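agent: user wants the full assembly modeled, not chains individually. Plan: 1) parse entity lines 2) check alphabet per entity 3) run joint structure prediction 4) return tokens. Steps 1-2 passed, two entities, 559 residues total. Proceeding.
--- entities ---
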Amino acid sequence: MRPIETFEFPEDKQVLFKRARRLEVITVLYIASAAAAMYITMGSSQAMQASFFEDVISVIPAVVFLICSRIALWPPNRIFPYGYHGAVSIGYLISSVALVGMGLFLLIESASKFISGERTTIGGMHIFGETIWAGWPMLAAIAYTGIPSVILGHMKLKLAPKLHDKILYADAKMMKADWMAESATAIGVIGVGLGYWWVDPLAAGIIALDILKDGVSNLGVVLADLMERRPEKTDRSGYESLPEDLRRRIEALDWVKEAEVRLRESGHIVLGEVYVVPSKTDNLPERVARAIDHAKEMNWRLHDVTISVVPSLNGAASPAPDGQG
Amino acid sequence: MRTRIAAILIGLLSTGGCSDFPKDNTETLKQLRAGREMKVGITHNPPWTVVAEGRIGGVEPALVTQWAQSLGTKARVITGPADALVEALYKRDLDVLVMGLTDATPHSGKLALSQPYLEVKTHIGVAPGQMPLADWTGQRIAVDPERLDLVAQVRELEAEPVPLNGGAAQAPIMAGYAFELERRGLKPTEDELSTERRVIAVIPGESALLFSLDEFLQAQDKEALKDKAMEALR
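--- prediction returned ---
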């Protein structure tokens, strides 16, 4: 077996990648401290308990990113000739499942609370010889856990498309889920304070549905990735134009009459084949080798292509035109 | 989305105002302050609650009576089986429940529990000067037979619980609350049998009522509560 070349991020992306790793380490540390703050103040409030478990689930994508993004860069070998880039998709799958799990958990939680008719009550809390309303320290804990989620989530959401890292993208969504759930908890706590105990499960339920929707759509994308759908933009704004660009670049070569391409994503990188109908056949092996290098220069993600020289492109064996089905 | 949530929060806070915050779901505290009688459910659980021969005593009924007075109303006591009282409280047929509850009560889903007003530990006590044993297996340990949880704790040590008779000569080894052992002239050993955080329950959903109770309980003198408990034990 001939392994593909070892992949390294280009220099400018390496800086971004380091920043992403640093963000994720901060995330893990911060979620751990937030979970501790929740655990201390939660008391008997169901909403606060749910928040605690939610914190525990929300750390999954960050941890998965730290593990899988490292595995993905392991050099290819004879046993894994395509390298370990698939680890990114596996990590993305785990993160999406965690997001779905979080949505389901919150939904069941709030529904069962509604059905059981459990009425949240928030009384006093003794602190430094004073009795204050226990809702205030809860809101402080929520603000502590919620506000950094907004900031970290925003930073990751900007970084993910640049690195084409879908785990990072799912994690940004998880952070969004996190602060939205925190907001629901805050609304619940204030609702209880105003005497409307049912605001608590209602707010949680609505936000659980939104998180579930996010989780399911991420799950759909990762499944399509694993089915090797044509490369899609990380922020899901459409398909990558990489296949068309590559075809044009190859067709621009003076010895090429026409060409077609077939590309697939494997984590951060893109692999695929180019079918070429030559107009000149002298020095063909050299021309093909140069064309491969020429293709790889086009985009850092295009890590390996194979060029097949064929007599014509029509016929059943030829791939369908890009984007046409 | 973010701005919308912020708007909801601000809206909720401003409509609520901060003067009477938190609020009740059904304005129980307001009604009590207006003079409606406070309905208090009670079961026998000495020394916290005592129901004997039509007389009500113990630490918690005294506390609740005082709390009702501070609100400008009177407490009316209703006795009954625990399950029925819990259900009645949930349905708002009672305002307060005193059953010698701890914060570990299995009924917590149907009750709004106060902050612990007293934390008490149970120990085995020996006469001063007597060396505590390393192993209590087979020892005869005096226990108030009415306090079933304490009897169970003694049995867990594989010791033999013997009924404590109030008036008779002092038992050499006895199980009870640390403050109780001290007040009986015994020395609590280091073996801690249990820690109990005593709480009182109100109608769930009534945050103002609960907050008022918590404020009242916080102001209580803990030693006086222990003295009161001691009275109920004699």
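agent: reporting back. The domain at 119-196 of chain B is CATH 3.40.190.10 (D-Maltodextrin-Binding Protein; domain 2). The interface with chain A takes residues 1-2, 5, 8-9, 12-13, 15-16, 21-27, 108-110, 112-115, 202, 204-208, 210-211, 213-215, 218 of chain B (CB under 8 Å).
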